Each structure stands twice: as C-alpha cells, then as structure tokens.
C-alpha cells in the first residue's frame, strides 16, 4: 500500500510538467509563469513536512495519511478546472494553477514522513530495510509510469482527463487505506501473536544502533544539529548525525525543496544559493 501511495504522489506531481505545453498554449502563459506554477507545488511541499509529521504523531498515521491522500487527490483533480473555480477565478489562470498546486503540495508533504512512521510500526528490525526499499521503489515506479500513462491519456482524451483520473485513483486509494490499515499491528485483527513477536523482536546490537544517539551522546535531533554548527564555517561537524543534518538543514532548501520555486528565474536562484552556501 505504501509503495502504491508513493507511486501515486510522484505521478501526481509530474503530471503538470508532462501536459504543461498544452496548458501554456491554451492559457497563453509565459515560460517563466509556468515555472512559478510548477515551483508553487514545491513551496507547499517544503512548508508542510514538519506539520505533517507532527499531525501523524498527534492523531495517528492511518487517519493523517488517508486525509493527506484525499487532500492532494482532490487538488490534483481540481487542476483540470482550476481557472474556472469560483474562489480562484479572480486570480486569473496562472494564479489559479499556482494556488491549486501549492495546496496539493501541502497534502503530498505528509505522505513520505507518515509512510516512514508506518514502516517503523509495522516492520521488524530485520525486515525494515527491505520494506523501506519497496516503499521508495514506488517513487521510481511513479516517475516511470507517469509520462507513459499521462501521455497516453492526454493524446486520446485531452490533458484535463489525466488530472481527473489521477484524482479519482487517489481518492480510491485513500478509502482503501482508511478501511484496511491500522496505526499499529496490535490493532489489526488479522495479525497474530507470532507475527507481533517477529515485528517487535530486537537484538541487543539493534537496540544499541537504534538508540545509540541517546546512549553515546551523538546529536540525533534538529536542535542538537543546530547547536553543533560551526559558527565560522557554518558546517555541521562529523560528530553530528549526517542524516539529521541533511534532512533538516539541507533538504528543505535543496532542488527538491524551496529552491525549486526559484528555478524559473535563474538570477534569483543563483543569489539565494550563494547566500545559503551554494547548496544543491
């Protein structure tokens, strides 16, 4: 299910780029305007990662991920009629597309963090690596399938139907997810005691690896990573957790985050990258 969800998120985020040529021609949008439209998704996506994870901790991953799937699927479908929506029509075609894509990005931002939380709940230590690879394989599958499927639909029935069908599929996936999945294996009626023992089995080495950050004093959180930044070089030293540093200090501003919002205007992008230390 998580692999399907990951594939769906990447199909939905790529579809505008695939049909962009036809939208530009129909609504007479400039190349730079279309770039800002594409980048507006990344702004919403970057902003809502932390709130999405917090909501999953607060209300449970099952409900939050179902809501996120439903949210971004509705706005994916709304992309087909964005300029004619009553609340967005006054923004003009470009503004309407930007608003819809921004709102879509808010929903998709929660998908991967909440998916990782589900993996932690449902997979034992020995299966977690393989399970995570299946989850992330959905990203590549969606990236491969999107140009083929969206392109075929667009050629036969037009670009609007590609957004509508993507949205409908997402709503169905959200419904199936909500009906079949539980927050933890203990809550699922079809998970037996032997399976629970396997999921919760942990070796002594695994325990130390999982909690080594707390045992050894190595930084393991955002606050710790921020405190370890060298005031002169502005770099995180080697004793800081590299995954934490990259996720919290680099990724939100990288090519997949906020920086992609400015990719349509290279001079602005270059200035911001220079100020942020040339991150990519």
Tell me what you see in this structure.
The protein has 280 residues and is mainly α. The protein folds into two domains: 2-187, Up-down Bundle (Growth Hormone, Chain: A); 219-275, no CATH class. Helix content is 71%, strand content 0%. The protein is built from 13 helices and no strands. The chain has helices at 2-27, 31-47, 49-59, 61-78, 92-109, 111-122, 128-157, 159-180, 193-200, 204-216, 222-227, 242-250, 266-275. α1 (2-27) packs parallel to α4 and α1 (2-27) packs antiparallel against α8 (159-180). It starts with a helix and ends in a 5-residue tail after the last helix. Mean pLDDT is 78; it is low at 203-208, 210-222 and 232-250.
In short:
The protein has 13 helices and no strands.
CATH architecture of the largest domain: Up-down Bundle
Poorly predicted runs: 203-208, 210-222, 232-250
Tell me the total number of β-strands: 0
- Characterize the largest beta sheet: strand count, sense, and whether it forms a barrel: none
- What letter string, H or E per element, gives the SSE order? HHHHHHHHHHHHH
User: Strand share of the residues?
Assistant: under 5%
Q: What count of structural domains?
A: 2
The termini sit apart by 31 Å
What is the typical, i.e. mean, pLDDT? 78
CATH topology value of the largest domain? Growth Hormone, Chain: A
Helix content range: over 70%
Tally of individual helices: 13
Rg over CA atoms, rounded to whole Å, is 21 Å
Query: Class by helix and strand content?
Result: mainly alpha
> What general form does the structure show?
elongated
The CATH homologous superfamily of the largest domain: MFS general substrate transporter like domains
- The CATH class of the largest domain is identified as Mainly Alpha
């Amino acid at each position: 299910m998580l692999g399907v969800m990951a594939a769906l998120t990447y199909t939905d985020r790529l579809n505008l780029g695939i049909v962009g040529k036809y939208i530009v021609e129909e609504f007479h949008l400039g190349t730079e305007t279309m770039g800002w439209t594409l980048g507006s998704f990344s702004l919403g996506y970057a902003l809502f990662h932390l709130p999405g994870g917090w909501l999953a901790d607060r209300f449970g991953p099952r409900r939050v991920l179902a809501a996120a799937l439903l949210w971004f699927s509705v706005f994916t479908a709304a992309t087909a009629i964005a300029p004619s929506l009553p609340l967005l029509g006054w923004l003009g075609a470009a503004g309407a597309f930007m608003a819809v894509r921004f709102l879509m990005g808010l929903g998709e931002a929660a998908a991967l963090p909440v998916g990782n939380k589900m993996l932690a709940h449902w997979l034992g230590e020995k299966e977690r690596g393989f399970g995570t690879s299946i989850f992330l394989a959905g990203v590549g599958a969606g990236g491969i399938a999107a140009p083929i499927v969206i392109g075929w639909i667009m050629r036969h029935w037009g670009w609007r139907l590609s957004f509508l069908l993507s949205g409908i599929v997402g709503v169905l996936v959200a419904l199936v997810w909500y009906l079949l999945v539980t927050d933890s294996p203990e809550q699922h009626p079809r998970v037996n005691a032997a399976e629970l023992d396997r999921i919760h089995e942990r070796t002594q080495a695994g325990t130390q690896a999982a909690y080594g950050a707390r045992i050894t004093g190595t930084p393991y959180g955002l606050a710790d990573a921020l405190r370890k930044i060298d005031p002169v070089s502005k770099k995180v030293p080697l004793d800081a957790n590299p995954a934490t540093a990259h996720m919290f200090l680099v990724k939100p501003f990288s090519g997949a985050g906020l920086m992609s919002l400015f990719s349509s205007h290279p001079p602005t992008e270059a200035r911001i990258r220079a100020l942020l230390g040339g991150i990519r």
